[in-house]
Amino acid sequence: GIHWGWFGVTPSLMVTPSIAQSTTGILAMLDEECLRPGVVNEDTFLTKLNQLLATHKHYESKETQNARRVTDASLPPRCFRIHHYAGKVTYNVTGFIEKNNDLLFRDLSQAMWAAQHALLRSLFPEGDPQKVSLKLPPTAGFQFKSSVAMLMRNLYSKNPNYIRCIKPNDTKSAMVFTPELVLAQVRYLGLLENVRVRRAGYAFRQLYGPFLQRYKMLNAQTWPRWDRGDREGTEVLLAGLELPAEELAFGHTKIFIRSPRTLFDLERRRQERVAQLATLIQKMFRGWRCRTQYQLMRKSQILISAWFRGHR
Fold first, then answer.
1. Helix (H, G, I), strand (E, B) or coil at 23
2. Where does the signal sequence lie (predicted)?
3. pLDDT at 58 over 60
4. CB neighbours (10 Å) of residue 215?
5. Taking 80 as the threshold, does the pLDDT of residue 40 lie above it?
6. CATH number of 32's domain
7. Res. 284: pLDDT tops 90
């Protein structure tokens, strides 16, 4: 795998289209600087970035700040800053050129391949003599872009499920909440907009089958079993609960509930009903156990009395 952490760089460099372009993007210009003859160092790389991305709204450096008459002591020299969806990220260009050219020599790869070890051969496939190429080995930046592109293709082929995590404090301490930090994350994650959209529409939606299976004990007509369609069963179930009509909407395959308060009320009723059913099961079991024990004692008593009367 390619560890772009060598540079202190995260995939945010790949977010903005004009910055991540294959020919004029930051990583492409880094590769170009590494291959360009003459004096090449991090300062020339940063100068080139300032020239090509001076007017880009997601790019910022000391030179662009000076041109815009912006005073910002938080941005040190030999650094540039990228504005991406999760905020501003600052990168120091020190070591970019050297680490991008930190390539493995071909003879070392061939030596690893010649070791006749399956793991080593899987780690150094370029050492195969049948695949020897005279092209320059790919730079770390190129391999990073290829890895990210492959990852994105893999992600786009999947059905995403997002789990949003909020960091409560910077000290990793329990029961400590930094309001400013939490608020910034809530804003960057778009949770406020998500809540507004949900509240404007329906906060809860679920297929008829799972919904009926979870709440069918709330209505005597659907409990303990319902032999007809799931949608019809859901309609019968909710009709018996006397919920406001504006809180519900019936789709082709799903039930929609507008307010979270209605869903919480359903959960509360379900918990109470589950407790009642558990009590009923316990009562029936204890009654059966006591009756069984009594019948056994009565049968034993009759048998003992019969033998005693016969003996007498």
1. coil
2. 1-20
3. yes
4. 23
5. no
6. 1.20.58.530
7. yes
Judge whether residue 74 has pLDDT over 70.
yes
Decide if 249 is inside a domain: yes
Residue 127 has pLDDT above 80, yes or no: no
Mean pLDDT of all residues in the chain?
Answer: 81
Read off the amino acid at residue 201: G
Q: Is there a single domain that holds both residue 41 and residue 73?
A: yes
The total of structural domains in the chain comes to 3
Residue 297 has which token pair? Answer: 């004692």
Do 183 and 224 reside in the same domain of the chain?
no
Domain extent, residue 242, equals 204-262
